[in-house]
Amino acid sequence: MITYYGYCDGSGEYYIVVDSDKCTGCGSCIEKCPQKTLELVMEFIDLEDKSIVAIKEEHRKKIKYICTACKPETNQTPCILACNKKAIWCVWNPQ
């Protein structure tokens, strides 16, 4: 399951995307996130509980401002580079 954390508004699209099928819940991306926006959560996926990464609730509507320092438009942010499974990426399309 692919989950988009963020929003789309008149200024563009701003999402951090997590693929729960690929995410192992290792926490590497959480350790590398300089803004501390990521956390591990338990989700019920494929009839079992699975630990996956997610954006903290209080940061979901502020992604555009919080993640900008990491230059998400390059898809070379610390969280993305830390994920060996390629389970996290950005959709960053400012207009």
Lay out the secondary structure:
Elements: E1 2-9, E2 12-19, H1 28-32, E3 38-45, E4 48-55, H2 63-66, H3 78-82, E5 88-94
Antiparallel strand pairs: 1-2, 2-5, 3-4
Question: Care to describe what's here?
Answer:
This protein is mainly beta and 95 residues long. The protein has one domain (2-94): 2-Layer Sandwich (Alpha-Beta Plaits), CATH 3.30.70.20. Helix content is 15%, strand content 41%. The chain is built from three helices and five strands, in the order ββαββααβ. It has helices at residues 28-32, 63-66, 78-82; strands at 2-9, 12-19, 38-45, 48-55, 88-94. It has a three-stranded antiparallel β-sheet, with no helix packed on it. Strands 3-4 form a two-stranded antiparallel ribbon. β3 and β4 form a beta hairpin. The longest helix is centred in the first third of the chain and has 5 residues, at 28-32.
**Percentage of residues in strands:** 35-45%
| Coarse structural class | mainly beta
With strands numbered from the N-terminus, the spatial order across the biggest sheet is 1-2-5
Q: Tell me what the CATH architecture is.
A: 2-Layer Sandwich
Shape, per Cα inertia axes:
globular
**Regions with little confidence, pLDDT below 50 for 5+ residues:** none
Tell me the Rg in angstroms. 13 Å
> What gap, in angstroms, lies between the N and C termini?
28 Å
What summary fits the major beta sheet?
Answer: 3 strands, antiparallel
- If you average the pLDDT, what whole number results? 94
Q: State the order of secondary-structure elements, H for helix, E for strand.
A: EEHEEHHE
Helical percent range?
10-25%
Number of helices: 3
Number of domains: 1
CATH level-1 class = Alpha Beta
As for the CATH topology, it is: Alpha-Beta Plaits
> How many DSSP E strands?
5
